[in-house]
Amino acid sequence: MPRRKDAFPMINWVYDLWLWTFSILVDLFFREVHPRGSWKIPRRGPIIFVAAPHANQFVDPLILMRVIKTEAQRRIAWLIAEKSMKRKFIGGAARLLGPVSVGRALDSTKAGAGKISLPDPKGDPLLIRGIGTNFEKQAEVGGLLVLPTVNGLAANAEIAGVHGPEEIRLKKEFKGTVALGQLTGRNTEEDGEFSNGSTRTVREGFEGSPYKTAPKVDQTEVYNAVFERLNAGGCIGIFPEGGSHDRTELLPLKGDFSMGPPNPR
Fold first, then answer.
1. What is the pLDDT of residue 190?
2. How many angstroms separate the CA atoms of 117 and 121, rounded?
3. What is the torsion angle, in degrees rounded to the nearest 10, for the CA atoms of residue 201, residue 204, residue 205 and residue 211?
4. pTM for the full model?
5. Are 155 and 176 in contact (CB under 8 A)?
6. Rounded to an integer, what distance in angstroms lies between the CA atom of residue 161 and that of residue 140?
């Protein structure tokens, strides 16, 4: 039976050797690491470790791996972005640890033709109009509509329907002052309401916002790999924010992580 593209077998002695080697680096930067509540970790049976906030792509998983191995004698199979798995050093090292590769729609965005706007933000916030667009070829139901990045964040919304080359309906509306401003050309207050309460349409002369589209990603193989490892009594680890950052608060959590823990089949 051919191996699934998302499945990389975990070899225990390789995992332990890799962890011991890179733990030396942790000791160089962190004199002491004292975990709290590690006695609560079950010594057997399936576990999903959800870790946040995620400050460093390399240090965070390494410290958790060492703590879990030292305190509970368990090994973690991390969910890792497919984009990272394709990098020479990171991907090569990660493959030795038995990860589950996850394809992310936002890693496959493409610039869309023309520009978009939100013509009726109050009456119909799910309707997106295009100007010189070709949604029938560049967008798909279940895919994402992505706005330009501002302050490191890019608002996105799932596409519920494509109704011609210049009309899209969203599953959920864009929210937030930045996204509404990008789609209407108007200033908004902190709560997302327009500064001029009588104004319900785009600013006169507004030419629209550039955008990107992302395809719908079928995660069936990923869920199968996760269920397989949990059914075998293994441990799965995930950073649900979807990226590392240096903020004290959490980033918006990715919804997919909550779909992982149903009863094992």
1. 45
2. 10
3. -20
4. 0.69
5. yes
6. 8
Q: Which candidate, 119, 85, 107, 60, places its Cα nearest to that of 237?
A: 60
CA dihedral 253, 259, 261, 262 (to 10 degrees): 160
Is the separation of the CB atoms in 242 and 251 below 8 Å?
A: yes
Phi, then psi, of 3 in degrees rounded to 5: -75, 140
pLDDT, tens digit, 9 for 90 and up, residues 153-201: 788 999 999 999 999 999 999 988 888 888 988 776 544 455 555 455 7
Q: At what angle do helices 12-29 and 59-72 cross, to 10 degrees?
A: 120
Q: Are 117 and 184 in contact (CB under 8 A)?
A: yes
Q: Where are the alpha helices (DSSP H) in the chain?
A: 12-29, 59-72, 82-85, 88-95, 135-138, 177-184, 220-231
Going by C-alpha positions, the residue among 253, 239, 250 that lies closest to residue 65 is 239
**Token pair for 90:** 């990171």
Question: Given the DSSP bridges, would you call strands 144-146 and 235-238 parallel, antiparallel or unpaired?
Answer: unpaired
226: which 2 tokens? 């996760």
Residue 81, classified by CB atoms within 10 Å of its CB into exposed (0-12), middle (13-18) or buried (19+), is: buried
The DSSP string of 182-250 is HHHS--B-TTS-BSSTT--SPPTT---B--EEE-----HHHHHHHHHHHHTT-EEEE-TTSS----SSP
